[in-house]
Every structure is written in structure tokens, then in C-alpha cells.
Design goal:
This protein is 32% helix and 27% strand. By secondary structure, the protein is an alpha/beta fold. It has one domain: Class I glutamine amidotransferase (GATase) domain (Rossmann fold, 3-Layer(aba) Sandwich), CATH 3.40.50. β9 (128-129), α5 and β10 (145-146) form a beta-alpha-beta unit. The longest helix has 13 residues, at 20-32. The radius of gyration is 14 Å and the shape is globular. Belongs to the peptidase C56 family. Residues 8-175 form the DJ-1/PfpI domain.
Length: 177
């Protein structure tokens, strides 16, 4: 996609166990379109990404969630991986950041298991989302309608199911910006 998002800042909220391609591919799309990406995490230093359950690359944390302000960003991306969103949803700073970000009305894009953090933030009731299929019950129990689609946009929320959906996911994010 040839969308330009020059001057836009995008927060990527992730920690250990993030599915590598679900972090790196949307980040490449943001930076390739002229935007600035920043890795926000619940810890300092580096995070350990995974390729399914196997260790992959490490990535330098650029800001801690406790120091992150939604006003500093134009969009938020919540990559998946099984462990990553489970750690995030147990962290009060990460949950606060997501809740406050959604309240701004700015785009929030979550893929695969990423919507778990949206559930914990209490922001999915009355919304329609997609995700990795195993989150269907969690999302419906939280008041959302779950759909099996490559990418689904419900207002500011952009969701996708899995790494195979990354191109459509990234394109929807860039369009929203």
C-alpha cells in the first residue's frame, strides 16, 4: 500500500512472548509509510519475541507502559503471541494505557491473541472483533460479537486473526491513520 503517514507516531505494546512477525511486519509497514514506531513494554531493556513457541529475536524497549501517554501517539498496535498478551493483561500499567488509549478514539489494532488485553481493559462490550479462534469465548463473555474474518474494523478497533492476515491488518492500520 502506498499510504503516507508522515509524522504519525504509533505505539506497539508488547513484552516477552510476542509473536515476532506480528510485531515486526506492522512496524515495517508503519515505518515504510513514513510513520514513527515505538516499542512500549511493561519492563525496561529488551523483550524476547517468539516464532510460535520458539525463541526468535530480541527487541529494545523504547518506553515503559507506566510512562506512556496516549496523547503522544496517533495509534496503538497490540501484537499477539500466546504469552505476550497474557503478561500484558496482568500488568496494571499496560491495562491502564490500553483503556486510556481506547478512550481517545484513536485507532487501536490488535491481532491474534492481542485482543486479550482489550478484554482486560473492559473496552470490547458492544463491539465486533475477530481474533485467534480460541479467544472467541473470552470476547463474547466480555460482551463483544466475534467474527471469523481476515480483518474487521469496528470504528477505531482493527482486529485480525493470525499472521496470515498481516498484510490486510497492516493496510487497515495505515488507512485508519
Amino acid at each position: 500500500m502506498s499510504t503516507s503517514i508522515q509524522g504519525k507516531r504509533v505505539a506497539f505494546l508488547a513484552t516477552d512472548g510476542v509473536e515476532e512477525v506480528e510485531y515486526t511486519e506492522p512496524r515495517k509497514a508503519v515505518e515504510g509509510a513514513g510513520g514513527r514506531a515505538e516499542l512500549v513494554s511493561i519492563k525496561d531493556g529488551e523483550i524476547q519475541a517468539v516464532n510460535h513457541m520458539d525463541k526468535a529475536g530480541t527487541y529494545r524497549v523504547e518506553r515503559k507502559a507506566g510512562d506512556a501517554d496516549p496523547a503522544d501517539y496517533d495509534a496503538l498496535v497490540l501484537p499477539g503471541g500466546v504469552a505476550n498478551p497474557d503478561f500484558l493483561r496482568a500488568d496494571p500499567d499496560a491495562v491502564r494505557f490500553v483503556r486510556e488509549f481506547v478512550a481517545t478514539g484513536k485507532p487501536v489494532a490488535a491481532i491474534c491473541h492481542g485482543p486479550w488485553t482489550l478484554v482486560e481493559a473492559g473496552v470490547v462490550a458492544g463491539r465486533t472483533l475477530t481474533s485467534w479462534p480460541s479467544l472467541r469465548t473470552d470476547l463474547t463473555n466480555a460482551g463483544a460479537t466475534w467474527v471469523d474474518e481476515q480483518v474487521h474494523v469496528d470504528g477505531q478497533l482493527i482486529t485480525s486473526r493470525k499472521p496470515d492476515d498481516l498484510e490486510a491488518f497492516s493496510d487497515a492500520l495505515l488507512r485508519a491513520l
